Amino acid sequence: xxxxxxxxxxxxxxxxxxxxxxxxxxxxxxxxxxxxxxxxxxxxxxxxxxxxxxxxxxxxxxxxxxxxxxxxxxxxxxxxxxxxxxxxxxxxxxxxxxxxxxxxxxxxxxxxxxxxxxxxxxxxxxxxxxxxxxxxxxxxxxxxxxxxxxxxxxxxxxxxxxxxxxxxxxxxxxxxxxxxxxxxxxxxxxxxxxxxxxxxxxxxxxxxxxxxxxxxxxxxxxxxxxxxxxxxxxxxxxxxxxxxxxxxxxxxxxxxxxxxxxxxxxxxxxxxxxxxxxxxxxxxxxxxxxxxxxxxxxxxxxxxxxxxxxxxxxxxxxxxxxxxxxxxxxxxxxxxxxxxxxxxxxxxxxxxxxxxxxxxxxxxxxxxxxxxxxxxxxxxxxxxxxxxxxxxxxxxxxxxxxxxxxxxxxxxxxxxxxxxxxxxxxxxxxxxxxxxxxxxxxxxxxxxxxxxxxxxxxxxxxxxxxxxxxxxxxxxxxxxxxxxxxxxxxxxxxxxxxxxxxxxxxxxxxxxxxxxxxxxxxxxxxxxxxxxxxxxxxxxxxxxxxxxxxxxxx
Length: 554
Known about the structure:
The chain is α+β, with helices and mostly antiparallel strands. The protein has three domains: about 25-175, no CATH class; about 185-350 and about 365-420, Histidine kinase-like ATPase, C-terminal domain (Heat Shock Protein 90); about 465-554, 2-Layer Sandwich (Beta-lactamase Inhibitory Protein, Chain:B, domain 1), CATH 3.30.1450. The chain is about 60% helix and about 10% strand. The chain has a five-stranded mixed β-sheet with strand order 1-2-3-5-4. A four-stranded mixed β-sheet has the order 6-7-8-9. Helix 5 (about 85-100) packs parallel to helix 7, helix 7 runs antiparallel to helix 14 (about 435-470) and helix 10 packs antiparallel against helix 11. The longest helix is centred in the N-terminal third of the chain and has 85 residues, at about 130-215. The radius of gyration is 50 Å and the shape is rod-shaped.
């Protein structure tokens, strides 16, 4: 029972796709009654006796047009071929099929099958009183106008709405991505600020701490001066700790993005390889023993590589001051054939006799080496840092002269780069996309040409049929009773029952057992628009036994 209930529920949901709020239920009911009433009224006017069954069928098919658009089009086509009542529903069924059937093959199959049933039912009903060729032509013209054109327009509207929905969704996505791009650019800038603060301020604070530490153990100072120097050193240590916290906060918010540093160019007046000599001089002024050497032929450097070399030496000196205070430091720049090698080494820190408690404590943010490796990576180089066999420390970097191709050519990836890489350009984005109007316009044009062709063909067929069913007065007078049927038929036109079928129920009584043919009589003289002159020829035994002309009311 549960399986039957589920199957029934699924069938109902398929036939009547929801949701079904109260307003829609009322609207569908009113529309179904209206369509059924129109079909029934047309059947009453046509006196077919099918008002009730056709009206009820149209009302039911109206409700099912959303769930089964193809089947509804086929059934309505069969009904419309038999009578005029379902023709308005045929228009709505064609619209629904074009709007709801997504696959072109399925839509085309439904339209073709509906047309075949439309033509077959029309031929079965009127085949005895009209030419099959005429029925096929009229059926094709009517079906193209009342079913195919609404289906094409419905498909155009559906595809246009789907395209607009896709464009709205894409626009919303682009807006969301733009917001993300702005946020990512902001995080990148935060990371850059954090890295520069760590490299620049950290180095200067380390020098202050080294200077104050050296002065604090100087025996020539008085106690008051030594106390003041201690306060200065503690302030420098506190400043370094606060700097570490700020840098940590900024860095943590930007960990998902690579740091966009190293391509901003050297700091004015003191960055780059030219500024390394000033760093060495500052360290020497702080009392550190620093040796600086340059080997090889000097080569021009890209701005990113130049700045990266400066920052690497700056960070290495800062670490040496913090972790190996008093140890000699060696800074070397070697211009190799394909890269610049930056090397900073220092041995183990000597023990400071008489140093106050806490003088050797250092504050490390843990970002220095990570930032250096990232700087080198961005320009296509690498950094190695580690202990030496003499228990010292060595930091070496290999930097290509022109940097990486992407970094040297485009600089850091900022907001503009995110837009170009992540989002398609708006100009030309629609190239290659076919407009739904093109296919539908082609279909409408084809249907229009076919309809125009059928109209022309119908007009020519009408003129020809009217001529085939009309006999001149002179021919009528020339034919005599008693002539053979073959001789009479050579004088008469072939005839057309489409124009003369109504004449069979008019005129004088026919001779018993005779077979008669009716024609319109072309008779000179005044004629009323409401009257027609008819000529009747009756044959019996292969001989003309009756010839009569009369007037019938149209």
